[in-house]
# Entry
Amino acid sequence: MEKRRFYENKLRQVALTFGFREVETPIFEDAELFILRSGPNVLKELYAFKDKGDRDIALRPEMTAPAIRMFVNNMSNDPKPIKIFYFGQCFRYERPQSGRYREFFQFGAELIGSATPETDAEVIAMAASMIKAFGLKEYRVRIGHIGVLRQRIADAGVPADRAAEVLQKLDKKLYDEARPLMEDMGVSSADIDGIFDLTETVGGPEVLSKVPGDVGDYLRKVVSFLEAMGVETPEIDLGVVRGLDYYTGMVFEAEAPALGAEKQICGGGSYTLSELFGGEKVFSTGFAVGFDRILLAAEKEGQAYEPRGIDAYVLPVSDDMRLKAAEVVAMLRHEGISSDVDIMGRKMGKALKYASAVRARFAVIVGSKEMEEGAVTLRDMSSGEQRTVPVESLPAEIKKTQ
# Structure
């Protein structure tokens, strides 16, 4: 948990630096919240049940819909843009595997108010900053536009009410399943091949020459703003679909090659959801980081986390010094120094061994001879050096090396 909190707080600090504020939503919501617009792959994995009031309830499979429900109910009159972030567990009934669990944690953010090249770039830049703050060395960010593929499959004859089925297969590059699905809808073989080619269109900004009209211009502006913000030029990938059905514009993903096949660590895009929950139509851009997966990516890259331990372990030399030891540890804690005291009555050797086991930086040895002079012995646990220190100077001496 110390390791998880350390990395969680790194992500939180980046969000605060970008001007986002933290929110928290319930772990369960009305099932309808997710059924309305989440897409077929999420619905198959939804943990839904009846509560004691015979209401249809679901454990949240993602956190964008709850955040927008919260916005509509409580924040719709606040000045725009509204920038919020959140961290919490989600639930999906899927096949557990490396980096993919049925209960998993998401760190995400939503920028609510408009969808412009600036807002999209702001969100992508924050996601990239979070990945960097995590310390990942190998990763790549890919951006696309869901409108390109949506338009292409509509022009090919895919009915609007079945577009989500096709997009789900294309998102996972399940071409063997997508082809018969589209053939049953009357899509020609040539159009299917063209759609598959579009999903494989990947490269630098030059790829945008293949995107006609406003969408190409829009993505070029997003790339320009990212460059102005110091973000490494992302890869353009017109096959980025995203698994949720509510995305309408720019979409992006981040991958960590260290994870192998299940390499996605972050994803998001622009969307409208508020009108589904009774609010006015508002354009937003958001993303979520798969916290468990990005932790695993850092481990696979060989990134080690050193547990911090405590600053001081106070140990009395004899039983008649136990009350004095209690006073010393209370004083250290009052000064904000993480400290513990021997409460097991250990002999000196075993007490020092325990101090080492809990990674104490210092041992504070309370002996009767030193206490007569108002002092204690301060032992550096890494070097073994020790010296006599007046009790009133003890907090300052320990804080010097924090």
